[in-house]
Amino acid sequence: MPDDILKGVYIPPQPKLIDEIRMAGTDLDEIAQKISSDPGVSAAVMKTVNSPYFGLSARIASINQAVILLGIDRVVNIVKSMLLKSSMADISTSINMEQFWESSSAVAVVSSAVCRQLNLGLTDEAYTLGLFHNSGVPIIAQKVKNYGEIIKASYARPDGKITREEFKNIGMHHAAAGYRLTRVWKLPKLISEAVQNHHSVERLLDDSSIENPKLKSLVSVLKISEHMVRLYQRLGDAPKDYEWDIIKLSVLGFLGLSEYDEEDLEDAVSYTLGGIP
């Protein structure tokens, strides 16, 4: 993996707040205090935990309540997600960042809903992966001025080889850059590996030496969710989802679903969320 493309490119460091939360250990009050000390982050966390994604029966009124009811790991994942967006707010890129974050958020919400529908028990991991899986896109877009056009060309490939098009043009691709960011941010290994492999789906699912069903499940959920939110249109401006056409049977087969089940799943997710975001 060549490093030249990332030389001089800003990869945001893990925010200090994450280290402060980690140092608080299991002290719920101190963790809530650390989060509340950043008004922007705490407001974003409150907005997220009270969104349809969590489906809570009653609104959460404070960060303390969120930490107690949702647990430390869950809240910290939300904080990381909020900080990812804010850490890139001031960087100059060649893509529409508002559109990018909207698409990432949509994939995250749908991924968690798919996990709930399939009873996979990976809803929080799926949400985090949805937000971070394309984090390498703005990293590369800082340096590559025509990256938006390269992304469109990638999604337009009939063979569905998105990262191959990127590598051909710039010697790097967003899955590798995103993996680098997740390691800098010390995200769980499961998330990092899912980011790294999210455009190598058939190889991942067919590789019997990879004995990690959670990794394969997460990546499968991510891909079906990308298709549901029409990411190929929103990010790649493509007429159809060429990648999904290639990997569809492998993904559905791994999840134990038929093509009819896929339609029912999308209907159930849409009903739960009040529509696909």
Q: What attributes does this structure have?
A:
mainly alpha; 277 residues; globular; Hypothetical protein af1432; HDOD domain-containing protein; single chain; 2 domains
Q: Can you describe this structure?
A:
It is a single chain. The protein has 17 helices and no strands. It has helices at 16-23, 28-36, 39-49, 63-70, 72-87, 97-118, 123-132, 136-141, 147-155, 162-170, 174-184, 189-197, 201-206, 213-228, 231-234, 242-255, 259-273. Pfam families: HDOD. This is HDOD domain-containing protein.
Instruction: Indicate the mean pLDDT.
Output: 88
Taking pLDDT < 50 over at least 5 consecutive residues as the criterion, the unreliable ranges are none
Strand content: under 5%
Shape descriptor: globular
Instruction: State the helical fraction.
Output: 55-70%
As for the CATH topology of the largest domain, it is: Hypothetical protein af1432
Note the run of SSEs as H and E.
HHHHHHHHHHHHHHHHH
Largest β-sheet summary: none
Looking at the chains present, what oligomeric state does this protein adopt? Answer: single chain
The H-level CATH homologous superfamily of the largest domain, spelled out, is Hypothetical protein af1432
Number of DSSP helical runs: 17
| Name of the CATH architecture of the largest domain | Orthogonal Bundle
Head-to-tail CA distance between termini: 35 Å
Q: Rg, please?
A: 18 Å
In the CATH scheme, the class of the largest domain would be: Mainly Alpha
The overall strand count is: 0
Number of structural units classed as domains:
2
Pfam families: HDOD (PF08668)
Protein name: HDOD domain-containing protein
InterPro entries: HDOD (IPR013976), RNase_Y/CdgJ (IPR052340)
Domain HDOD: 7-201
